[in-house]
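Figure 2 data, in text form.
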Amino acid sequence: MYQEIKPSKGIDNLIDSFWAFSNNKSSENFKVLPDTCVDLIFDLNQNKGFLSGIMTNYQYRELATESDLIGVRFKSEKFGFLSKIPLYQTKNLRLELAEIFPTQNLKVLNQLTDIEKLTDKISFLENFVATSFKQDVESQDQIILTVAEKIRTLQGIVNVGDLAKLHHISLRQLERRFKSYIGVTVKEFSNIVRFNNTKNSIATFTKTSLLEIAFDMGFFDHSHMTYEFKRISGENPSFFR
């Protein structure tokens, strides 16, 4: 069973959501789609923690029997300023937290395991995030944060050169700083944002043709949209209708 919980207002600028997944049946594989987020994942059954870097295409994950997972889904543009980990080194990877946060990893796992109710686990994780990931506003690259927000607002339908001009920065500087803090290029980030918005439009506007949605979302034609969907999700656009 999968559950998703929105964060409290105090940390909702950092966290997209908390989530929990339990599996009491036989082991199974499931597909994970890119969402521009970075996840901290705690496997309470295996007593391990993981960092799942920002993804640019789909991946399969195997869930063992009796899996008990709980995760913190960070907005990637924020996590890059909260952690000393170079996010571009984690792209499309899953790393053990013991290698990244050796002192905190086991402590957090033990405390989460001792808590029974999911609501209490979420409260514990909210406090963990608030105390462990201090927001240093001065260290944040405001241009990169603004660019990321602009891309989200425009649903990923952007021109990288225009973004650079709008924020009075060279294209080379924008690409370097964006990749350093967010872990992917501006184009990769925009493509993921556009994919997710297009996917939602396909599911919501069932009477609108896929070709019309393709044009509305900045694709050249239906074939272009299909190519991007197959590359990012492994599925045709019609799969999400």
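Caption note: The domain at 142-240 is CATH 1.10.10.60 (Arc Repressor Mutant, subunit A).
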